[in-house]
């Protein structure tokens, strides 16, 4: 019983450290980047919407988010919040 808590805590910390929604990956984004490359970097988005060749996708974790706007399949602009 006494070993369960430290193991569980270590596992939770490891999962939190594995988030792709971070400052390092955000700094790799650039205008003109293909949508496929963004998804390789950040993973599958939490949600996407769009019309008329424009779209917006958002990635989230507990405390941070990244939003990317596309024209066609290329990054037009992007923003991040709470990144570490």
What does this structure look like?
The chain is α+β, with helices and mostly antiparallel strands and 84 residues long. Helix content is 31%, strand content 32%. It has helices at 4-17, 23-26, 35-42; strands at residues 47-51, 54-60, 65-71, 74-81. A 4-stranded antiparallel β-sheet has the order 1-2-3-4, covered by helices on one side. A hairpin with a 4-residue loop joins strand 2 and strand 3 (65-71). It is elongated. The N and C termini lie far apart (34 Å). The mean pLDDT is 88.
In short:
The protein is of the alpha+beta class. Helix content is 31%, strand content 32%.
Set out the fold topology:
Elements: H1 4-17, H2 23-26, H3 35-42, E1 47-51, E2 54-60, E3 65-71, E4 74-81
Antiparallel strand pairs: 1-2, 2-3, 3-4
Task: Please summarize the sheet with the most strands.
Answer: 4 strands, antiparallel
Query: Residue-averaged pLDDT, rounded?
Result: 88
How do the strands line up in the largest sheet?
A: 1-2-3-4
Distance between the termini: 34 Å
**Structural class per helix/strand content?**
alpha+beta
Features:
single chain, 84 residues, alpha+beta, four-stranded antiparallel sheet, 3 helices, 4 strands, 32% strand
